[in-house]
Amino acid sequence: MNRRHGLSLALAVPLGFVLPARAQVTVEGYTFAREVQVAGQALRLNGVGLRAVAWLKGYATGLYLNAKAGTPQAVLGNTGAKRLQLRLLQEVPAEEFVKAFDKGVSRNTPAAELPALKDRMTRFNALVMGLVKVKKGDVVDLDWLPDSGLQFSHNGRVLGAPIAGADLYGALLRIFVGPRPVDPEMKTGLLGGPVG
Fold first, then answer.
1. Domain ranges of the chain
2. What is the DSSP letter of 17?
3. pLDDT by residue (tens digit) across 27-41?
């Protein structure tokens, strides 16, 4: 099955044209706004992606930044506010979500840096586990607030206090845009390339 199925632009435009600022991007029926506010900053949609294995579609993602970034280095080097938004396409036990985050961090973070993340990953995992399940249609926001850290939100509700450390947020972002991403085609889409 072609993974492009279900991906569309809310406004029909020819290939190669820049979308108007108010345009929205739709992935599997879920619309990502072109602009959001995080930590008082206007962030623009950098790209969207779809996590899929064969016919099973897990979630759609949108990456929001204050400046366009076409490489992982540019995304990770951006010091402004950020948002990674996940739109769930399947119901998943929170435990499976935690396992996926832990695996992605360990695959994309140098071994020498993992010990420094351990306690904060435990705090992050506890926030996720508090959901028990993430359901189809749920929205998970992983926001980077430069003055306070990682803020985790579920369906618009902030859960827990921010968790400090740009290294932690970078480790989570590398799950999606790092050297061993959870889905290479999703990485391409989040970096502004074609969504496939």
1. 34-190
2. P
3. 777 889 999 999 999
